[in-house]
Design brief:
Elements: E1 2-9, E2 20-25, E3 46-50
Antiparallel strand pairs: 1-2, 1-3
Length: 71
Amino acid sequence: MNYVDLRYSKDGGRNWSEFRKIELGNTGDFVKRVQARAFGMGRQWVFEIRVTDPIRADLLSGSMLLEQSDS
């Protein structure tokens, strides 16, 4: 199983979360959908993705689904 590490900042990179380990799937699993959820609220988002496994990992695209909160 291969993984990436993901961390984020909600304030433009001044403060960072801890890294989360996100499962990529096995080598050769080209149709694996990778998702990360429950980030909370923020205004100036910055994401950092780190690959530490000895694999080739290309980020081809990314998208976000944003939901308005009631607060």
